[in-house]
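Reading a protein record of the kind used here takes only a little practice. The record below shows the convention in full:
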Amino acid sequence: MRAIVITGGVLSGLGKGVTTASIGRILKDKGYTVIPIKIDGYVNVDPGTMNPYEHGEVFVLDDGSETDLDLGHYERFLNTDLSGESNITTGSIYKTVIERERRGDYLGKTVQIIPHITDEIKNRIRKFKADVILIEVGGTVGDIENMVFIEALRQMSMEEGNRFLFIHLSYVPVIPSGEQKTKPTQHSVKELLSLGIQPNIIIGRCEKELTEKTKEKIALFCGVKTEEVLSNPDMEDIYELPMLFKKQELANIIIRKLGLEDKPAYTFKWENLIERIHEYNDEVTIGIVGKYTGLEDAYLSIKEAFKHAGLVNSCKVNLHWVESDEIQIEDLSSLDGILVPGGFGSRGVEGKINAVRYAREHKVPFLGICFGMQLAVVEFARNVCNLKSANTSEVDPNTRYPVIDLIPEQRGIHKKGGTMRLGAYPCEIKRDSLAYRLYQRDKISERHRHRWEVNPEYIEILEKNGMKFSGKHPERDLMEILELGDHPFFIASQFHPEFKSRPEKPAPLFVGLVKSALARKRGLI
C-alpha cells in the first residue's frame, strides 16, 4: 500500500480537506488512481445528528452515508463518487469493537486500545485499493481524540510492503511587523515526533506565500529539506490550490518519495477551469434564505454549486445571506434570484414561506431544496389553494391541512441517527417540463436527506390550481420535483442537487437558476 497521511498542526480549521483534495487532484492529473479517507476524532458515529453550527454541513453520499463536509471537497475536486467507508470516526470504530466484544468475538481476551482499536482502524484502511490512498486526520496533532488514529497509522507505516508519506499542514502566523513566525510549527512537529512520526513534507498555512527564509528555518528545525517546505497562502478561490501545488512541484516530490511509476496523464485540464473562474461577463446576486446563515459552511455544497453554475454561465454569482427568522422585504427586493435550502425544525419557517411567496408573486427566479420544496407546497396551498392553515406536520402536528407529512415508514421511528430517507434515489421526469429542459434526460438519480414528503392526499388540489409535479420516484410515486408554469423560473426538488455538483459536472438546477437570474437582471424576463 502507498499512502499519504495529512495531519494538521497549531490549530484546526486550516483547510486540511481542501489541501487533501488538491493533493488528490494533482496526482489524478498525473494519471494515478486516488481514494481519499477522512478520519474524525469525535465519538459520534457520524455527523448526521450534529447541529450545522457544531460541525458545518452534513454531506450525503450515494449510499446514504451522512459524512463530514470534507468528503464534498474530495468528490468535487476529484470528480468521483465515494462511499461511507471513506469517513471513519471514533464512534464508528468503538461501536464496531464493542459490538464484537458483546458477541464474544474476543472471548477470553482483555479488549484494549492497542491492539483491538488500532487493528480495527488498520483493517478499514486496508480495504481500499488504489495507486495512492489519501488519509486526512481531522483535528490537530496533540488532540487526545486523534492519538489512537495516529498510532494506527504509525504502525501501518512500519509494515513490510507499505510506503507511507506524512504531510503536515501547519499554521504560520504573521505578527504586526510582517514577520512570519515558525515557532508554532516547530512545536507542532515536535508533538508529532513524540508520537513516533517524522513528517516528510511540511505545508505552511499562512496569509501570504512563505518566504525563503521561513522555509529554510522550518526545514532546519523540523528535519526536512527546504524544497519539502511548501506554501499554502490565502487564495481568492480554493480551486486555485492544485495549480499552486503543481507550481511548487509537489506531485513530483510525492511521486519520487513513494516510488510511483509514470502513468498517462488525465485528459481534463484543471488549468482551463482555473482560467474560467475569473473570466465572467456579468454578475448576479442570489439570496439564500436559511436558518444557519451565521455559519456559511452549513451551506458549503450550495456555495460551491453556485460557483460551478457561474462557470457555465460566464457569470459571477454573489451570495446574499438572509437569516430566515429576521427576514425583511427589503432583503429580497434587490435580488436576481432566491434559494430556500434544506433545514429542520420550526425556527425561521414563516420567514422562508414569506420568501417563497415573494419569489412566486414577483416572478423572481426561485429554487427550493428539500425543506425549501416542502415550504413551497405550504405557501402555494395557503395562498393559492385557499387552505389557509396548511402546514407541514413537522412544524404543526395538529394542522388541519398537513400538505407535507411523514413518509409512512418514518412513523414509529424514534432513533434519529441514520434513519432518514438517505442517499441516491431515481427520479422520472416528464418531458414537457422545465425540469426536463434543464436535465435533458427523463431519468436521473439524486441524493436525499429527509423524513417528510408531499402528502398524496393534496396532490390533486395542488395540481388543479397550477402546481406541476414534473419529477416523481418511479416505484412509490413520491413527488421529487415541482414547478409553476406561469412563472419564468420556479422549481423545487425534494432531493439535494448540490451534493452531486462538480466543476466538471455542474448541477442543472443551479445552472438554470443562475441563467434565469441573469436574464431577469438583463430585463429579458
